[in-house]
Amino acid sequence: MQVAHRREDVRVMRAGLGTVALVPTMGFLHDGHLSLVELARRHHDAVAVSVFVNPTQFGPGEDLDSYPRDLDHDLGLLEQAGVDLVWVPEVADVYPVGSSTRVRVEGPLTAVLEGGRRPGHFDGVATVVTILLGAIRPDALVIGAKDAQQVVVLRQVVRDLAIGVQVVVGPTWREPDGLAMSSRNVYLTPVQRAAAPVLRRSLTEVEQRYAAGERDAETLRSLVRSGVATQSEGSLEYVSVADPVTLAELDRIGPAGALVSLAADFGRARLLDNVTLPGAGRAPATVR
Ligand code: AMP
User: CATH: 3.40.50.620, 3.40.50.300, 3.30.1330.10, 1.10.3370.10. Which one for 2-170?
Assistant: First the structure.
């Protein structure tokens, strides 16, 4: 496994690798990240992983400084997983002195959900991913359905900027009790950790009611609100039942299906989860 720090080095190391799939991460890796590495390896000669806590996607007052980090442990996991190339840049390798270009994703896709609550977040994500793609020039970009709006936004960026990369989406990896894996789960106290699977349980209820024929979006939102309210450790910030492509809130779920997504605060941890309700004759949009 080759480990690069500087931009020039990652470029040179990438050159000899054949087709490459890139998995961008912020480190503090878990099995969800490693599932993306597996997926990446399936269709390409080599897997590259970036480990970089990107400052431009954090807002003021967010957890940039306290975001969990353990690079040695991460490198051990990536080596074990057979990763070929890891890029661990410093902030100055990604944003060198004098760099002044930022990618701004306008319009309704970034005005809602996470984008609505974290102004500038997706501009930071779009900018760093564009730089990662430019430096590594992978054939595929492998990302997780866990961050559903990020998937929609990055597909848009790749299309708009004519970046010739295939976007591959892996399913959300979960703990045995259903909690979606996240580096931020480390913030949970034992009591909050025990309560947090309520998020997945509420989404499972939504899936069941949808399978039984429920199509009224507000009924499904209410189901999540009342499910999460059964415990007092965490509070729901929002639940959305939206068109999976435009992210516009729905009244009724039609043939396109829906993305049901939520954010909830459990102490210091802001947790995200989602499910895709399949449309008529369409499989969920993840590769398994
Ligand atoms: P992060 O390190 O949290 O920025 O995540 C890096 C990549 O891993 C993103 O594409 C995430 O969507 C993805 N990811 C995070 N958590 C999970 C999970 N539980 N299952 C699958 N992918 C995930």
Answer: 3.40.50.620
- The closest residue, in CA terms, to atom 10 on ligand 1 is 143
Q: Give per-residue pLDDT as tens, 15-31.
A: 999 999 999 999 999 99
Q: In what order do the strands lie in the sheet with 258-266?
A: 234-242, 258-266, 269-277
**For residue 142, which atom of ligand 1 is closest to its CA?**
10
pTM of the model as a whole? 0.97
Q: Which CATH class is domain 183-277?
A: alpha beta
CA of 170 to the centre of ligand 1 (A): 9
CA 231 vs. chain centroid, Å, equals 26
CA–centroid distance, residue 147 to ligand 1 (Å): 7
Q: What is the pLDDT of residues 160-215, one digit of tens each?
A: 999 999 999 999 999 999 999 999 999 999 999 999 999 999 999 999 999 999 99
Q: Report the run of H or E that residue 188 belongs to, with start and end.
A: none
